[in-house]
Amino acid sequence: QKNSCVLPEDLKNFYLMTDGFEMTWSVKTDDTPMPLGSMVINSISKLCRLGGSSMYTLPSAPTLADLEDDTDEEGNGDKPEKPHFDSRSLIFELDPCNGNGKVCLVYKHAEPVVSPDTEIWFLDRALYWHFLTKTFTAYYRLLITHLGLPQWQYAFTSYGVSPQAKQWFNMYKPITINTALLSEEADSFVNKLDPNKVFKSKNKTPVLKKKQPPQPPGSQKSHTSMTSAKTSSLAGNSSRK
């Protein structure tokens, strides 16, 4: 009521179930827990509007609306129209991202009447906008899928995540960070092993060897005795002669 806008249905159902969401998880390095993942959805009291007030108390202090330029690129083709910091858009902070930027709920058309259509955008530290999803439900799934890893929102920017964040991605979410590699070098991930060739039986021609008939152990002795008997008989005959 304060901002004359209606929450999208999926986000309203989320807040009816729970007033915000926060989940953190840690990893152990040298037996010391180190905070790593962080998944946050601000409560309704922290669902603050951006660009609506000055950062300082001085009346002439600059605001985010002063960053607006009439020469900003509008949405064309596949690129959606970017949000505006002035009265043309209503922007609410969903996730402070631990100081790495802000995930925002954006009403892009606020004049003359606020349009109920909303989108989820990421505002980086350089105050550049990056489109994430069209619905809160889709963003919530992205948040869970990326495990709340540091700077995971930068995976949807043109310059990507930092080298340090990429190391965490390679450790806990390797498929997500190597999506482009999977699409470009799909053949390198295909198992080209052909089990029919590996387990193919080789037909070897058996070599036939002539086997001599086995001789009983007593035959050799009898043959020797017969030979000696013949020799002795021949000797006896010669002596008789």
UniProtKB/TrEMBL annotation:
Residues 200-212 have a biased composition (Basic residues). Residues 65-84, 200-241 are annotated as: Disordered. Residues 66-75 have a biased composition (Acidic residues). InterPro entries: TPGS2. It comes from the Eukaryota. Residues 222-241 have a biased composition (Polar residues). This is TPGS2 polyglutamylase. It comes from Melospiza melodia (Song sparrow). The lineage of its organism: Eukaryota, Metazoa, Chordata, Craniata, Vertebrata. The gene is Tpgs2.
